[in-house]
Amino acid sequence: MDFVGKRIWFFIFSLIVISIGVVFLIISPGLKPGIDFTGGSTLRLSFENDVTQSQIRTKLTELGHDGAIVQKMTSGQEGDYFIRVGELQLPEKKSLLSSLQDSLSPDGINELSFDLVSPIVASETVLNAFYAVLAAVIGIFLYIWWAFRNMPSPLKYGFAAVIALAHDSFIVIGMFSMLGYLFDIEVNAMFLIALLTVVGYSVNDTIVVFDRVRENITLYPARSLRDNANSAIAESLGRSLNTSLTLLFTLLALMIFGGDTIKEFLWVLLIGVIVGTYSSLAIAAPALFSWENRDLSKLFNK
After folding, report:
1. Which of 47, 79, 228, 263 has a CA positioned 20 to 30 A from the CA of residue 26?
2. Across the strands, what pairs with 45?
3. Do residues 197 and 284 both lie within one domain?
């Protein structure tokens, strides 16, 4: 298959997907920040009596928690709920649980978990997240530039890899904003960890393809970069698909049998593996050829 020859179609498809994600990012609230980024308290409670989300939300509003988030947990018992409110100290938490029990669940409420994050820690998390992503991108660019230093114009390999990383990150973030809009899925520290994991996975796949390009250029110097890039993609296709399918089956098993606490992490990985595999084959090497072919210069000089 002529992946490089069809690069414009791949680029257009990716641009459409990214644009859809941008629309959901613009639509309020965009990415829904979790407790790690906003501060506050989260509780996982198991109600012994039958209660509904609306009953819990109404009671929390009466107690002064107007912006409370109440979600029914998909795993565990029938009466298990996830509740997120503003910052609660221990006495305030005890008072809240007592009020909920008296009005909604006289038979008792079991506290499954309680987490508290101050706004100061949350703001530091946001700043550290930015630094982590920036450091990862710079480090990856420098590593690839050094790894391909013996090739003509090694910088283009680094730029092509960064383009693929930006592509993957934008799509994952856009998809997550869509999930947040449709299913109230929040972004937390696990999201950042998963996003960096996706970046690492995508880079690994991209380097495999670039390494095949380098090997083909060394073995067949008379062939064009287009032919060598297409051969590299074809040679890497089976390996990339097999690795991705194995990982996808593992992630699906974890999503089915794992707990709610890692669902956001798994969603990011699931989307990221699919997008990362696609970008390593359809974006990275074609972007490398576009750089060599000066596609942008030709486009703007028309």
Report:
1. 263
2. 81, 111
3. yes
Residues 112 and 130 grouped into a single domain = no
DSSP one-letter string for 99-143 = HHHHHH-TT-EEEEEEEEE-HHHHHHHHHHHHHHHHHHHHHHHHH
CB 210 within 8 A of CB 203: no
pLDDT value at 21 more than 70: yes
By C-alpha distance, which of 96, 104, 78, 79 is closest to 42?
96
For residue 1, being part of any structural domain is answered with: no
Q: Under 8 Å CB-to-CB from 108, ≥6 apart: which residues?
A: 48, 101
Are 213 and 197 a contacting pair, CB within 8 Å? no
Residues 213-224, mean pLDDT to the nearest whole number: 91
Report the DSSP pairing between strands 109-117 and 80-85.
Answer: unpaired
Q: Which residue has the higher pLDDT, 171 or 182?
A: 171
State the amino acid at position 223 in one-letter form: R
Domain boundary among 53, 82, 116: 116
Q: To which H or E segment does residue 85 belong?
A: strand 80-85
Mean pLDDT of the 142-161 span:
89
186 token code pair: 């929040």
Same domain, 255 and 230: yes
pLDDT range class, residue 298, cuts 50, 70, 90: low
Short-list 53, 145, 51, 165, CA closest to 103: 51
Q: What is the pTM of this model?
A: 0.79
